[in-house]
Amino acid sequence: MRVLGIDPGTVSLDVCGLEDGQVFLDLQVASLDVAEDPSPLVETLRACGPVDLVVGPSGYGLPLTPGDRLGARELALMVLVRADDPEGGGIRGLRRLVRALVDAGLPVLFVPGVIHLPTVPAYRKANRIDMGTADKVCSAALGIYDQARRYGIPYAETSFILLELGRAFTAALAVDGGRIVDGLGGSSGPIGLRGGGAMDAEVAYLIGGALSKRAVFSGGAMDIAGTDEGTDVEVWPDDPLYRPAWLAWIEGAVKAVRALTTVLPRPREILLSGPMSALRRVQTELADRLSDIAPVRRVSGLLRPDGTPVRAKEAAQGAALLADGLAGGSLAGLVEVLELRRASGTALDHLYLRGAETIRLRE
Known about the structure:
Layout: E1 2-8, E2 12-19, E3 22-30, H1 31-36, H2 39-46, E4 53-55, E5 65-66, H3 72-79, H4 89-103, E6 108-110, H5 134-151, E7 159-165, E8 170-176, E9 179-184, H6 201-207, H7 213-216, H8 221-225, H9 243-260, E10 269-273, H10 280-290, E11 296-298, H11 314-326, H12 332-338
């Protein structure tokens, strides 16, 4: 069994390949490079030889959809760009990559986001779209796999709140009995490094026509700090200039976890994922603030054959695990506990706000 998992991050695109459960590919490339021209990446993946399945970059997610069944409407539902909004570079890049993967004849499968899962009650989905994009579902899959392996328990006995700290967004998911039961996605949850998180409806109203897809990627901690990614985030709490940005970011993450304890009051662990969770200062701060709920630790990722940790982000590793299970490999139980095959609907199915009926997507 030979499979690939892809995570199209804001800064890097990551690929993890598994052959019979062993890592054979661990790849990171700059997202901007892939957005400009995905062909080198596609050729690299084709050079891996025949693969049984590729869990592809799925954006906001779809019920399990093979690449050869991906039409304009499905792609529009993955990227969620209004028909009247000029696309940002990242969105154009994702469209281009998806089409290149499909056109290359790779056995690509697109997977659901949290909003599509039957394990989340419908009432929790009311007026929500981003409860966690498809890559967050993949990160949760790695968390389930990791916790089950460490404790020697079935997938169905895993329990944790996943806090993912990306280079753009922060998101949190609740996993109970191996099932995702709730989530706060990056654009509907806490403030991230780049993204402003959940938006005050009055702000959205006043911004009006200026509210674009690019705006969703703005207003984060780096904007508060007035800096760019070149600044060392770990110095922020000690610098009066940057400390407000640090507090907004960290407190937002803590609030997200505590909000999800309404649904999951006694998780076995709080698991950290995402590139920013690798920072020691971040881990210490979150442990200090959240250890009264449960132990706080980073997700243990996969290892290369030489025993070194895989560099590809957690979402890519989780996507590879799901690819193995979806292709009928040894990790089929992981797919079953997440109930991915029962995913259904669209990200727009649970909107009750006036004006929702006027939504038109760019196809």
